[in-house]
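During the first year of the project, the team set up a workflow for recording each protein of interest as an amino acid sequence followed immediately by a discrete structure-token representation. This format lets reviewers and collaborators read both layers of information side by side without switching files. As required by the reporting guidelines, we include two representative entries from the current panel. The first entry is reproduced here exactly as it appears in our internal archive.
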Amino acid sequence: MEIQRILIATDFSPRGERAVQRGAQLAAEHAAELYLLHVLPALPLEVFKRLIAETPLETEQRLYNRAKAALQNRAEILALKGIRVKHHVAIGRAHLEINRYAQSHHVDLIVIGDQGESFAREFFLGTTASKTLRTGHHPLLIVRQEPRDKYKHVLVPVDFSKNSLNALEMALKAVMDASIHVLHAVEMPLGQKMKQAGFDAEQVEHFRSQILIHAREGMEKIVSDYAHGDRRVASLIEYGHAPDMIREKAQALDIDLIVIGKRGQTELDEALFGSVTKHVLYETPCDVLVVNP
């Protein structure tokens, strides 16, 4: 799959503008068609009662025209840069309209801004980004940093599951000139229990070495199968708790994008997307691309 159609959801805020800039940058890199979408909420009747002498229909039309003009202006600026742009104003619930538009236009990537300083606290309490992830099936890029340049250093955590391999595949297609670090964190939660069960230190160490050997073999295979000799790709194996290793490597390698698979699809999406994905969204300051299964 190539990146041919990119959807940017914007609310005209500074975070929305970051999403527009990053999405436009990716569209230029991939010669992709760009869709700009703004969703107006369907305001309840009580709100209209407080508005001066306007009927709900008149107020809605006025807001719609204003949003359409703002999108038109943004689209014209991007078109001057040689980007093919379409724009649309929808009315409804943001996450539903974003996913509906993405589905009907066969979008390959959705780009959205983060939620500002309160993002970590609010993400799992019902933000547009989390709802879009939870109810949609498209890769979602959450833009947190000011997009001053192309992505240069990308981190892809893998656990050998299909979801994480989908993330690696997406990273290879989405970023053009970045170095891609494929990270597998080796955890041994049974180590302490083995000692308590009477295994000596040598046996525990042997078990640990076998896990590392298995991890190395797995990493060699996926880099071979997916990267096909791509010089941008380097594999990393670290021993420790996966979220801690991801956070440390993101800082040490100056990572500007993490691409990670969304876990779940039931049980409220594995307690909202799986613990590792959740930690990445909470604890890392860089952009995050979440790939749906």
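The second entry, processed by the same pipeline in the following quarter, appears below.
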Amino acid sequence: MGGMLAGTRVAMLGGDAREVILLEELLRQGAEVRVAGLGDLPEREGCTSYEDPLAAVQGARVIILPVPGVNTKGMIHAPRARQPLYFTREVAGAIPAGTPVLVGVARAYLKDMAAERGWQLVETAEMDEMAILNSIPTAEGAIMLAMQELPITLHGSEAFVLGLGRTGFTLARMLAGVGARVTVIDRGAADRARAYAEGWPAFTFTELAAIVGQADVIFNTVPAPVLTEALLARTKPGVLIIDLASDPGGTDFTAAAALKRRAMLAPGLPGKVAPRTAGQILARLYPTLILKCLERL
């Protein structure tokens, strides 16, 4: 079979509906894919399924792990698997130095192994193209959660967006599109200027305490402790906080519970609210990324 990945052996360990769509694209591009922990799949030329990750990685030139990656105990995100899937030291030992290992988010467990073994560890969630594309289903999912949880419409609400990065900008624009009164909080002068150009009031985090009591809903995108107990105490009792930052988020959830503020951690929305779109994003980016990684060998 032809395609840009013809003859390239790829191991896919774990995953969800997103990786199923990625698998289809890899096969279409001619890759030989060895899968572990992706559940029951129809028989396809070029695809071999294994129960054991160790068997799947044998001889693979590229390793693909799920977007959520591997947790601190070595468990691979594999909701479709028949049993828990682990990225053990034995599995790691079967992956040669220099091998590209693609994962959305790499925690210390995987980073330490990669450094020790000399792999090309690529964290795709932080790549600009992927992050910008994923910001669309993330923003839609965040707005869906707000609509479900708020007793008022977003139209006319005071919506605060903390952090005007790739997700924050898309979210702020969508909120403004449904008629919310958007306020942006960002530490960067350039990002605040960009918010001003869009017609959104923008403030620094040091100014947040003085205005946070106005918010009906707060969307946090900053993966740092920005919504502290002191700030939460200044919010109105009916405020809704949706934290989109990677686990553990940027909200003091213990303090929020004590203050009776509704706060939810909602990372990874693309795979939950729009898995097909999220899978298509992987399918769009990964084949070319694999080729680039292999060219470095």
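For the second entry, the following points were noted during internal review. The chain has two domains: 9-126+274-295, 130-266. Residues 130-266 form a domain with the Rossmann fold fold (CATH 3.40.50.720). Both points are flagged for discussion at the upcoming steering committee meeting.
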